[in-house]
Amino acid sequence: MHHVPDPIIALLAPLRRYAFALTRDWAEADDLVQDTMLRGHEQRRQLVSEKAVGPWLRSILRNRFLDRRRQHAAQIKREVDFAQLSPQVQDAPQDDAIRLTQLRQFFMALPEEQREALALVAVDGLSYADAAQLIGVAPGTVMSRVSRARAKLREIEDGVQRPVKALKLVGGTDAE
Fold first, then answer.
1. Rounded to whole angstroms, what are the CA distances from 11 to 41, 53, 121, 164?
2. Where would I find the RNA polymerase sigma factor 70 region 4 type domain in this sequence (predicted)?
3. d(CA 109, CA 36)
4. Within this chain, do residues 113 and 143 fall inside the same structural domain, yes or no?
5. Which residues fall within 8 angstroms of residue 36, CB to CB, at 6 or more apart?
């Protein structure tokens, strides 16, 4: 039986949390961590120092996440195209459900970096510093990405006919 070094075991929980922050789905996060560990094992000769195993595995995890998202780009585009063909306003009881569907589709259509930053800060409640550390960029870069994401959602919001009872946009205002 092969003994796994303790530093690797200690990294599983942080890797799983990071994967969840990216995917927002525990099952997908677990698959991503498993994929990361497999890739890490396959590419273990590329690891320069045992001390660098954490950043190295986080980098593999993030790259695998981005690869998976690129593979789903066509599916997301199809969802957005379908939403544009769907009725925008229906009876009042259904307005909120339609609005949530629209916002989700608009969110999913954001560029990857903006969607990741907005999800971490506005949805999951991480600080800019914590989100920056997870993504591997400066806090100012996270602030910029969040700001651009919010601006893009507001721009999309302004171009869509709103139901009578509009929902608050993430990071937006209730002012009409």
1. 14, 9, 23, 49
2. 102-153
3. 26
4. yes
5. 15, 19, 57, 60, 61, 64
Judged on CB neighbours under 10 Å (0-12, 13-18, 19+), 134 is buried
Residues 47-97: pLDDT tens digits? 777 767 888 898 899 999 988 888 777 667 777 777 667 555 544 556 677
Rg (CA), the chain: 19
Residue with tokens 């195993």: 53
Helices and strands counted in the chain (H then E): 8, 0
129 plus 84 within the same structural domain: yes
Q: Distance between CA 105 and CA 148 in Å, rounded?
A: 17
Cα(29)–Cα(22) distance, rounded to whole angstroms? Answer: 8
pLDDT tens track for 114-169: 988 888 888 777 889 988 988 889 999 999 999 999 888 888 777 754 444 444 55
How many folded domains does the chain comprise? 2
